[in-house]
Specification:
44 residues, mainly alpha, globular
């Protein structure tokens, strides 16, 4: 939940993510997190 809140806060401050890799700019999201969740990450 903590990471989800950080993602939402980052998106509100900086606009939508262009690529999945852009999520790495969020504190708490690293390469391992992206790798484990890549199948369920969707960008709109």
């Amino acid at each position: 939940m903590k990471t989800a809140k950080a993602i939402v806060a980052y998106r509100k401050a900086n606009g939508p993510f262009e690529q999945v890799g852009d999520l790495r700019a969020v504190k708490g999201v690293g390469a391992r997190t992206l790798s484990k969740n890549q199948r369920v990450i969707m960008l709109e």
